[in-house]
Design goal:
The complex is a heterodimer of chains A (243) and B (223).
Chain A: H1 4-10, H2 21-34, H3 38-50, H4 55-75, H5 81-105, E1 112-117, H6 125-137, E2 140-143, H7 150-160, E3 164-168, H8 176-187, E4 195-199, H9 205-210, E5 215-217, H10 223-230
Parallel strand pairs in A: 1-2, 1-3, 3-4, 4-5
Helix pairs in contact in A: 2-3, 2-4, 3-5, 4-5, 5-6, 7-8
Chain B: E1 7-12, H1 16-20, E2 27-32, H2 40-53, E3 61-65, E4 83-86, H3 91-96, H4 99-108, E5 112-115, H5 117-122, H6 126-137, H7 139-149, E6 155-160, H8 167-180, E7 183-188, H9 192-199, E8 206-209
Parallel strand pairs in B: 1-2, 1-3, 3-4, 5-6, 6-7
Antiparallel strand pairs in B: 4-8
Classes of the chains: A alpha/beta (243), B alpha/beta (223).
């Protein structure tokens, strides 16, 4: 059995990053997410916090790039659902270290986001990952779970005065419920108050545009930057759909 | 004079028996591994290889025993043959006999894990998935993963497609329901779509893809 310290030394950083100092540690953090090692992720995150590395750096240059690599490997068929689930769990360990510190620093949350998987769809691995990441970035999440009807989405947006709606679907047979939900937002006049972003394996940018979504998320990992961009907070690498 | 058409049926192996029962001397069959289902990214590629291999051959059309399959079919085309494909999201509609019945079942219970004899034999079940996971990640992790992955399922439904004696499959399906701690039900299947797929006529439930045209997601969606 290799002990954790040795493993830490063995962990190679993600490619294209310097091999010394904080940059290397951040890159190792990403690799620990890829290795789905919860304890290692926790340990490195704690070390970085001790070294007073900025939380957003830890998130955006360590944890998220690691998770992005996992998503890419999943897409290429090198990783399967177990790897995705285990890496998400590891990511959570890192975020649990960061969350209380982020709350301390922030007076207000970035905004309220209603999140859910659409009607008749029970898949939530991607949706839960989006929640972890959006929360980590400072958004307040209202998680409606799975199999969420358009009416339930609308009710939650009104009740919480949410600025953003994030919908997920993993089946081509349930994708249309994103469209029905956006139609209901139009009918109730909520499109003036709330932006919409959609994602999930079968969802394409063309589909997102056709149904009138404001943003399309190819990867769960790009959800925070897209959410910021849609709400005009700041953002990069996101895909805001031009009207 | 020969006036009978000759079709090539290219299908997923989970529905081999259901399709073969309509063998009529005017069809040739080829079945591909179910594993393509697991990586939709590779499915179109594998199907394209098969279609390209028979490019220019005597067939009057190529029938695809597939649905949209998580977009796994998107991009598939033939330069020399017409393609015929059922306008369904996945094979559950084929086994149940129509897209409407699949929708009806989903609305009754969206948390249904469907099994058919073909799926049990050639595809995956929650238990076989768990066993695969256990080999790679150990039992404890495998337990966590499988229950995390399937935590929202509330029912196992075995579809009786009428071409297999059900008893041995019933046992497996019940065991899977016990394993997940969910209810168990049997649903009658229907041969209708399989029959139409192999024998025609190809009405509103099918897409006819002309030579050179490629299969697209929006062809399957009601938008």
């Amino acid at each position: 059995m290799i002990n954790r310290k040795e493993k830490l030394n063995m962990v190679k950083g993600l490619s294209g990053t310097p091999e010394t100092g904080v940059d290397m540690t951040l890159s190792q953090l990403g690799q620990a997410v890829v290795l789905r090692d919860c304890k290692l992720v926790k340990e490195i995150t704690e070390n970085l916090v001790k070294e007073e590395v900025n939380h957003f750096q830890i998130l955006n240059r360590g944890l998220i790039p690691g998770m992005l690599e996992v998503s890419e490997r999943f897409r290429r068929g090198e990783f399967f659902i177990p790897e995705l689930l285990m890496s998400s769990r590891a990511l959570k360990f890192g975020l649990n270290v960061l969350r209380p510190l982020m709350r301390e620093k922030k007076k207000d949350v970035l905004g309220k986001v209603v999140v859910g998987t659409v009607k008749f769809d029970l898949h939530d691995i991607g949706k839960n990952l989006v929640i972890i990441l959006l929360e980590g970035d400072g958004f307040e999440i209202i998680d409606l779970g799975v199999d969420v009807s358009p009416e339930k989405f609308v009710k939650a947006i009104e009740k919480n005065e949410a600025k953003l709606l994030a919908m997920s679907s993993l089946l081509t047979s349930t994708m249309s419920w994103m469209k029905f939900t956006i139609e209901l937002l139009h009918a109730t006049g909520l499109t003036r108050k709330v932006k919409t972003m959609v994602g999930g394996a079968p969802v394409t940018p063309i589909f997102a545009k056709n149904i009138g979504a404001d943003g399309y998320c190819r990867e769960a990992t790009s959800a925070p930057s897209l959410a910021r961009e849609l709400l005009g907070i700041e953002g990069d690498e996101a895909t805001v759909i031009p009207k | 004079m020969k006036n009978e058409r000759l079709l090539l049926v290219l299908g997923c192996s989970v529905m081999e028996q259901e399709l073969r029962q309509f063998q009529n001397g005017q069809t040739e069959f080829k079945f591909l591994d179910y594993g393509l289902h697991r990586t939709p990214e590779h499915m179109a590629q594998a199907l394209q290889v098969e279609i390209d291999q028979v490019s220019g051959e005597k067939y009057d059309g190529i029938v695809l025993g597939y649905g949209l399959c998580s977009n796994g079919i998107v991009g598939v085309q033939s330069q020399t043959h017409t393609l015929i494909i059922p306008r369904i999201h996945d094979c559950i509609s084929l086994f149940l006999g129509s897209l409407e019945r699949y929708r009806q079942q989903s609305s009754i219970n969206p948390g249904t894990y469907y099994l058919t004899p073909g799926w049990i034999e050639r595809g995956q079940t929650p238990i076989s998935k768990y066993e695969d996971y256990a080999k790679s990640y150990g039992e404890e992790t495998a337990q966590w993963v499988i229950h995390e992955e399937l935590k929202h399922y509330t029912r196992i439904a075995l579809i009786d497609t009428g071409v297999h004696p059900l008893e041995p499959y019933r046992k497996v399906a019940r065991k899977n329901a016990e394993f997940l701690g969910v209810s168990y039900e049997e649903l009658p299947g229907s041969p209708m779509l399989f029959k139409e797929l192999v024998c025609g006529p190809w009405g509103k439930n099918f897409l006819i893809i002309e030579k050179g045209q490629s299969i697209q997601q929006d062809m399957f969606l009601d938008l």
